[in-house]
Amino acid sequence: MKTLLLARHAKSDWGDPGLDDFDRPLNARGLRDAPAMARRLHDEGVGLQLVVSSPALRAITTAREYAAAFGVELVERPELYAASARAILAVAAALPDEASVAMLVGHNPGMSDAVAELTGEFVELPTCAVVTCALDVDSWAELVEGLGRLELVRTPRDA
User: Fold this and answer.
1) Contact (CB, 8 A) for 128 and 30
2) Which of 16, 31, 77, 109 has the fewest Cβ atoms nearer than 10 Å?
3) CB 5, CB 48: distance < 8 Å
4) Would you say 102 and 52 are in contact if contact means Cβ atoms under 8 Å apart?
């Protein structure tokens, strides 16, 4: 059994129109929500073992909070930036089997679409939302569309 958490980055700052999309930082709300969600998952006993993130500034900043809260490795995967559902699930299928609970941090619409592809249920993820999907597999490589079961959707507002 594997557990995949799909997370959308926290709220980003649109204050500097000259910044490239990749370089947008978190705004004040994002800087508050990301550590709060990380603590919440930790306090709930999620057991996160690995965090894999898009390298875009808003995503990697969010991912660092999860990795720090759980004391786990953070891996950057460029293919998660502006990724399609198929690309996101391909990253998940390549996760190391030593991790039974892993998180991918990325962007919408890809993350919402990945939840739908994996579980058959569409969830529009607001910023800093985390979806938990249960996978009845022994290896991440066995992951295929429709295999997952949506277990829980967490947002900063429902804390």
Assistant:
1) yes
2) 16
3) yes
4) yes
Architecture of domain 2-11+24-158: 3-Layer(aba) Sandwich (3.40)
Domain boundaries, the chain: 2-11+24-158
CA separation, residue 44 to residues 40, 73, 117, 121 (Å):
6, 20, 26, 23
The mean per-residue pLDDT over the stretch 63-92 comes to 98
Tens-place pLDDT, residues 90-132: 999 999 999 999 999 999 999 999 999 999 999 999 999 999 9
Pick from 5, 3, 67: nearest CA to 34:
67
Tokens of 58: 């808003």
Interval 1-21: pLDDT, tens: 999 999 999 999 999 989 999
What's the per-residue H, E or C state across 96-147? Answer: CCCCCEEEEEECCCHHHHHHHHHHCCCCCCCCCCEEEEEECCCCHHHCCCCC
| Distance of alpha carbon 144 from alpha carbon 93, whole angstroms | 8
